[in-house]
Amino acid sequence: MLIGKYACIANSCLMRTFQTQTSRSKVCLRNQHYECVARYSAATAERKRFYQDVSISQSEGGLYEINLDQRKLKTPGGKLFTVPNEALAIAVATEWDAQRDTLKFYTMHLTTLCNTALDNPTQRSKEQMITAALKFLETDTICYRVDEPHGLVELQKNEWDPVLQWIEKRYNVTIGSSASILGPEIPEATKDNLRQHLKSYNFWSLTGLEYVITQLKSIVLSLGMIDRHLSVEQAVLLSRLEEEYQIRRWGNVEWAHDYDMYELRARTAAGALFVHLTSESSTVKHKLLQD
Amino acid sequence: MPGSRRAPLHSQHRSKMAALSSPLRVCRGILKELRAIQGPSYKKSLAYNYVMDQFRKNKVTGERYCRAKQEAHHASHTYLCLLASTRNHLVLHNLYHGKGERSPEEVASLVGLRLPTQPGGKGWEK
Can you state the subunit structure given in the record (chain A) (predicted)? Predict the structure, then answer.
């Protein structure tokens, strides 16, 4: 039933409903189809902002929770919404606080990522995610070159080759680039090296990393951004290189190009921040000032 | 051809990056975004306190190349990008994509009609 519910929501444009502890009365219907229809219409109906204050609190075990006006936030799966560190909790609380009259879930990227990591609706394991990520390498954006127009070929060479060289040096792998339809041949040693590296991330960070890879359509760019070699704007620019080339040639269309660019930037930044916050822990060591 | 007169993509982008890379600018940018979100009382918010705390903690460091400082700078830059692009995305969304479908009442009033009302309901409504 839970999988069916998620499949229906996934089919209907990934709009999610957020339940609070005083949950809405469940509509009791005979057919699962009707329940899906009711949930879809409930998901797309606009929810007004029903809370005044957003605050965070720490529970036992060191996990942080979000409180909307005294009520604890829950995931769409019904679990309590907990995050492992304070910075992520504050960022999620800011997202909720940024909502004005209606709740716009498509702007709350960090919340969506946390929900996915907590609920895991498609029951993915770490191995599945790593395998999927490595499979993406064969169709990586950076490795696909064109033969013409000449300006674009030059641009791809100047912009993408340095990133390829960086990742080959950093991870000691070989990833070529090719202009053919089949793409480059990735040797097994490359995949093994990257698999070892990806295994060092925990489940939450892998969720974020998978999200970033899906947005940027490239493992190389995602790893470059996670390793802080590229900034978010640079990674988005490199991912949309051909579009940028065409924009400079033919002109910019605000309601399509800029809209897509800002959405891609927002999602990628959210994913990158999510990976950073869930994969590192920082301590402050005070050194004594010596006279 | 207009394309040939502009600076190459990479160097133009590099100059944009260099302009934003000082921590002070990033901090100011984040505070501007928080003010846009929260309104005049943004100094009392959680995010404001946390961000100012982090910036103060990372300002003082003895080493010339401090990895934690680089990491914190990249993280602050990422957060600024997140806030700015969600705001811009929302602005563009409301400008171009906001309307949605009209309800049956609005559609009827377009031609000057009103929907019929049936006191007992139609039978299949809850």
Answer: Interacts with ATP5F1B; involved in the assembly of the F1 component of the mitochondrial ATP synthase (ATPase). Interacts with FMC1.
Q: What is the pLDDT of residue A148?
A: 81
* Cα end-to-end distance, chain B, whole Å: 64
DSSP label of A57:
E
CB contact under 8 A, A107 and B70: no
Query: Which has the closest alpha carbon to A123: A193, A207, A242, A236?
Result: A207
Beta-strand ranges (E) seen in B19-123 are none
B46 touches chain A (CB under 8 A): yes
Chain A residues whose CB is inside 8 A of the B97 CB are 255, 259
pTM here is 0.78
CA-based nearest distance B118→chain A, Å: 24
State the average pLDDT for chain A.
82
Q: What's the CA gap between B48 and B39, in Å, rounded?
A: 12
Assign B80 a pLDDT band (cuts: 50, 70, 90).
very high
Chain B, 48 to 77: residues with Cβ < 8 Å from chain A are: 50, 57, 62, 68, 70-71, 74-75, 77
Q: At residue A37, does pLDDT exceed 70?
A: no
Give the ranges where chain A is alpha helix by DSSP (H). Answer: 2-11, 32-44, 86-97, 109-119, 126-136, 150-171, 188-199, 203-216, 219-226, 232-239, 241-250, 259-279
DSSP string, A175-188: ---B-SSS-PPPPH
Q: Using pLDDT thresholds of 50, 70 and 90, give the confidence band for residue B13.
A: very low
Which of A109, A158, A270 is closest, CB to CB, to B10? A158
b/e per residue B28-66 (b: at least 16 CB within 10 A): ebbbebbeebbeeebeebbbbebbeebbeebeeeeeeee
R_g over Cα of chain B:
25
| C-alpha–C-alpha distance, residues A268 and A171, integer Å | 22
* Calpha distance B114→A175 (Å, rounded): 66
Put simply, whether A153 touches B (Cβ < 8 Å) is no
